[in-house]
Design a protein that fits this description.
By secondary structure, the protein is an alpha+beta fold. The protein is about 15% helix and about 30% strand. The chain contains two helices and five strands. It has a five-stranded antiparallel sheet with strand order 4-3-2-1-5, with no helix packed on it. The protein starts with a helix and ends in a 6-residue tail after the last helix.
C-alpha cells in the first residue's frame, strides 16, 4: 500500500498550460494584470519583443522580453517579465482596448499613400 501512494505521488501530471493558448509573438500588444502575475498590482501595457524560450520555468509560466508603454503608447522601459500566458490580455493593434494607445498605434501603422 505505501508503494502505491509513493508511485501515485511521483507520476508526472499533465501540463496545466492550455493547448489552445495563443502563441506569444514579437509585436503583440498585451495588457498585464493580476491574472498574468501577482507582480502587476496596476495593469501595464507592453509591446512584446520576444518570448524567452530557452529559460526553464514552472509549468504554465514563461519569460517575455517587452517594452513597457506609457499612456501615449511610447516605450518607456525594456523589461524581462515572468508571466502566465493563460492570464495575458491581448489588445488589438488596429483598434486597441485602450483608446489612447490604440489610436496612436493605429495612426503609426497606417500606410502612407503618395499624393
Amino acid at each position: 500500500m505505501p508503494d502505491d501512494k509513493l508511485k501515485a505521488r511521483h507520476t508526472s501530471a499533465p501540463p496545466t498550460t492550455p493547448t489552445d493558448a495563443r502563441p506569444i509573438k514579437a509585436g503583440d500588444l498585451l495588457r498585464l494584470g493580476r491574472t498574468a502575475s501577482v507582480q502587476f498590482c496596476r495593469p501595464i501595457t507592453v509591446r512584446v519583443i520576444r518570448e524567452i524560450e530557452d529559460r526553464h520555468t514552472y509549468d504554465g509560466w514563461t519569460w517575455i522580453e517587452a517594452y513597457e508603454l506609457n499612456a501615449k503608447g511610447d516605450a518607456v522601459s525594456k523589461r524581462e517579465l515572468f508571466v502566465q500566458p493563460a492570464g495575458l490580455q491581448w489588445l488589438d493593434v488596429r483598434t486597441g482596448e485602450d483608446a489612447v494607445v490604440g489610436h496612436r498605434l493605429q495612426m503609426a501603422t497606417r500606410t502612407r499613400v503618395p499624393a
